[in-house]
Amino acid sequence: MGNTNVVQAVKGRGFKFNRKMDSICSNVIAREGIQTVAVENHCNFSRNSDLCICVVTWNMNGQVSYEDLVELIGSNRKFDLLIVGLQEVPRNNIARLLKRAVAETHDLFAKAIMQSLQLFVFGPRNSVPLVKELKLDKYSVGGFGGFIGRKKGAVAIRINYKGITMVFISCHLSEERNSECRHILHSLFSKNQNPYAEPAQITVWLGDLNYRIQGLNTHPVRNIIHKDLQKLLTSKDQLLQEAERGQIFNGYCEGSLTFKPTYKYNIGSSDYDTSYKVRVPSWTDRILFKIDDPDKINAALHSYESIDDIYSSDHKPVKAHLCLTVNKHSSITYR
Q1: 285 Cβ contact list (under 8 Å, min separation 6)
Q2: Would you say the C-alpha torsion 242, 243, 244, 247 has a positive or negative sign?
Q3: Which of 3, 8, 134, 137 is most buried (most C-beta within 10 Å)?
Q4: Do 154 and 169 touch, CB atoms closer than 8 A?
Q5: pLDDT (tens digit, 9 = 90+) per residue, 179-219?
Q6: What would the pLDDT profile of 7-60 be if each residue is shown by its tens digit?
Q7: Is the pTM value of this prediction over 0.85?
């Protein structure tokens, strides 16, 4: 594990379960582990929020086109920060293509790269002076299926922007995903840890977490999806099951899984896997978030969806729009 420097480049601390979950996010469905959050579709951008964040994750399967990246980001730029986490990235200069795609509205603040696992943070143009802290880290769990250069693990960026300290973790997990989640949380930003450092006020996990739908055969699952009843499959989702057992992600929030499972597709189409493996469709690609102290910051999720019009990978990208509001009696101040 080590640091990857970009702009300049905290010490984080352990993530504890916060039982005041009903005040962290509005429209929460209570359950142990991950809290399911209903999406508030309308967002007034900065009018009612202090910071709006667009988060995107995509397993690229080693393929990319500039047009795909433009579609990934979208034309609606009503957000402050843009977070892009990519897995199985090809050897192209993705940073250059992303910068070109957002050049009219956003600048690159930071990037963390570990071979095919990459994370980018963009902010509004000419707003770099609002960044007061920026540190990066990574955690490797080895190669990918014997292919050199395709890494699994996590890359992370810790940033203080407009007085709010955030940690973004982009990951690609293997079959040992529960233990990898725990090791990543305990290891990132732990080197030379300052015991007096403030914890991140919000932590966002994104990536190919690789959890599957289990207990059902592929054809019944596909029939349910064909009828647009995929919400019925959430009880079979491994990520939610493991979190409910207390194994991972206690205290985190996630939007409702109303979109179709994002893996595995035939490349070039919106048809699920027709190879000899005929894999069970699953929500492998996820975005989760956690507020450290809900007395200081509230979070509202304004979208959580897949991007179905991208066909170059066997995964569909997932995008979320998250807005933060600093409570007026909080000690947080803008610099």
Answers
A1: 57, 58, 59, 207, 208, 209, 262, 263, 306, 315, 316, 317, 318
A2: positive
A3: 137
A4: yes
A5: 999 999 889 988 766 666 788 999 999 999 999 999 999 99
A6: 333 223 233 333 333 334 544 544 568 999 988 877 766 667 899 999 999 999
A7: yes
